[in-house]
Amino acid sequence: MNISCHPPQEEMAGLIGVYVFQGFYGLLSVVVYTLNIRALRHHRGNLDKSFSLLYICCAVLSLTYFLDHFLIRRFVKLGFFCEFILKYFGEPNYWMMPYKTVASYCPIAILVFHTLIAAHRFCIVAAPIRGVQIWDRYRRIFVSIGFLIPLIFMWFMIPCKSYAELDSEGNGGLDIEYKKVFGFSSSLFAAIAAVLFGLLTLFLTIGMLIVLAKLSFRKLSQAEISLIVFEIFMTLFTMIYAFTQGILYYSIYIVKDMELKATVIQFRSFAIDIFILPQAWTLLCLSTTVRRSTLRVFGKHLGIEFLSTDIDNQKHTRMVSTAPATFSLQKSTVLNNNFTKS
């Protein structure tokens, strides 16, 4: 088989077009993620600190994974500087180990934090007062655990050397592989993590919807509906990635269907983008807090000042200062905070 440094000429233009589009959309999402993080960090009246912390951690991981995957993986897939890379990185070395470690760690960590966000929302819906107390008190512990859990599924890759090689499938371009130190399959553990945390996120979201259904959806405010929509989208995108990872492992190691594997691999780059980038846009579109902060950032540069209306401020003041601290009020405040307060 004649393996080339570059993809077939007839496919090159199409691949470049796809990667340019993905790069534009991805970098725009990076900007939106950055503005979202800024909004959540600088929002003084933010009571729901647990959600903000979980989202910020998830956003940072998503940014890291996208930049790592797009700028390196898809770059070498086109075969640019192929001979140079093969000459200096064709043998196993530790210089490329950070890329492989990040590429293995980040998607699992994002899955874990999606599950934590779903668990956080389920707890608050199921037990508003107690749930808030637990998450506010132990949120840093939960976050620390969230960063440690992925190591269970990829620790054996950390001491490995990585290297560049020509695409073993004969499609042209380069692949970045690693030399095993331990006899564990990274694909198997990645598939297990994807399916496990994907299903946990799904079940927690369904549980939240069941609890809310018992409270009657007609009584939900617009902010509560926005919260539900945000989590449904997050769960959907998580399941798309989990399903893709599961099918990929199934095609390689169970049925050994190379045609199915090739099809899944072609879709996988889109599944990764669907998995890590839309949360930037859903929060921006659904959260009044984030949207107003973003408008203020752009307005500041354009010389336009965006302020919330006096009516909104008056309503918020009355709710905080005069309303009794009832069970329903505390629940409403916690559920809506990131989506309504300005």
TrEMBL record:
One annotated GO biological process: sensory perception of chemical stimulus
Alphabetical UniProt keywords: Membrane, Transmembrane, Transmembrane helix
One Pfam match: Srg
UniProt KW Ion transport keyword: no
GO CC terms, sorted: membrane
Organism domain of life: Eukaryota
Annotated TM spans: 12-33, 53-72, 102-129, 141-158, 188-213, 225-250, 270-290
The family this protein is said to belong to: Belongs to the nematode receptor-like protein srg family.
Protein name (database record): Serpentine receptor class gamma
Organism taxonomic ancestry: Eukaryota, Metazoa, Ecdysozoa, Nematoda, Chromadorea
